[in-house]
Amino acid sequence: MASCFNGGAGWPEPVVRVQAVSDTCGGTIPERYVKPPSERPSPAFSGNSSSDDAGGLKSIPVVDLSMPDVDEACQAACREWGFFQAVNHGVPPELLRRARASWRGFFRQPAEVRERYANSPATYEGYGSRLGTTKGGPLDWGDYYFLHLLPSSLKNHDKWPSLPPTLRETTEEYGDEVLHLARRVMRLLSTGLGLEASRLPEAFGGVGGEGACLRVNFYPRCPQPELTLGVAAHSDPGGMTMLLVDNHVRGLQVRRPADGQWITVDPVPDAFIVNIGDQIQVLSNAVYKSVEHRVTVSAAEDRLSMAFFYNPRSDLPIAPMAELVTADRPALYPEMTFDEYRVFIRQRGLAGKAQLESLQATAKKASGSSVIDVSCPGPPAADTSSS
Ligand SMILES: O=C(O)CCC(=O)C(=O)O
């Protein structure tokens, strides 16, 4: 039995680290990590930019940020897939290596060092192993570290690990570079909507007004990867995510909007996987899609990923931008701040696209408007493993 840590105030039960479960569970994972058959990973399609029989892309597009037509490529990817892999993005590969190595170094520290940073559901900052506070609720096969980068009033190096010794400095440098990249992509997305480059960034609170945080995920080896997930299916509640993954270990699956199939992403080495979150789906009145994704785990290798979440200022009202609301396409979502929006996730954990869909239903009820369905279709029966 893995040792329990009775974490910071607020968790409904003792917290168990997945790293400890992985080390001690032998060949059978505990029941809490076993997903219902309909949610278990199935053999999924994979491939980069190769076409399917109908000429469409099999997997998420790769966008070269150094090309002159980059804004068109970005906006097409975000309309069709809500996801792309960004290459030639300007963040030095050497910094990516250092960032990955620093965080692997943290997850290799002895348990008592890691536990100094144990988090609580009040802010989720620190070392964690679950989302949501439902007692007895399902658990994912992954531990994580969550920290704030912006606004600067929330950034506190004392809440970041002090070991390995290079981690704080490297994370600071990494955060600056990825922030710069996120701001550039935001301007491209804004022009892709036919708006001024500054329009979408302003809706987030302008330069310095935005929010940014980092979630470093560590998925230990799992003896029964076919029964569980590293992160259950969800769309990202925030604005936009810049994800750095291991170059050689696959795990991310994206639910292809065209048909609801789960597609395994083959990572392009050192690319950032960029995806639209719920707040940009709302602001763009669903022109850009916030698409469900999930993470599979491996029996052979552990995996590390770094998700940089770029968010609107948390107290700004977020609603479809006026320029994108017409008589034919009324506002699909009511106004809500990001602070209000994320209460749902913090209490209930990740729940596919349930939150965005309930928001859309509220808007429809309020306006009495006819239904515009922007959701992804459900997965075809053949794609849901029942093993
Ligand atoms: O690890 C991954 O590939 C994705 C992680 C993710 O979806 C998340 O942290 O929200």
TrEMBL record:
Coiled-coil ranges per UniProt: none
SUPFAM superfamilies membership: Clavaminate synthase-like (SSF51197)
Cofactor(s) for this UniProt protein: L-ascorbate; Fe(2+)
Domain of life: Eukaryota
GO MF assignments: jasmonic acid hydrolase; metal ion binding; oxidoreductase activity
GO biological process, one term: regulation of defense response to fungus
Domain Fe2OG dioxygenase residues, every copy: 209-312
Gene3D superfamilies (UniProt xref): B-lactam Antibiotic, Isopenicillin N Synthase, Chain
Keywords assigned: Iron, Jasmonic acid signaling pathway, Metal-binding, Oxidoreductase, Plant defense
Catalytic reaction annotation: jasmonate + 2-oxoglutarate + O2 = (1R,2R)-12-hydroxyjasmonate + succinate + CO2
Annotated segments matching region Disordered: 29-57, 364-387
Similarity comment: Belongs to the iron/ascorbate-dependent oxidoreductase family.
Protein name: Fe2OG dioxygenase domain-containing protein
Organism the protein comes from: Eleusine coracana subsp. coracana
Taxonomy of the source species: Eukaryota, Viridiplantae, Streptophyta, Embryophyta, Tracheophyta
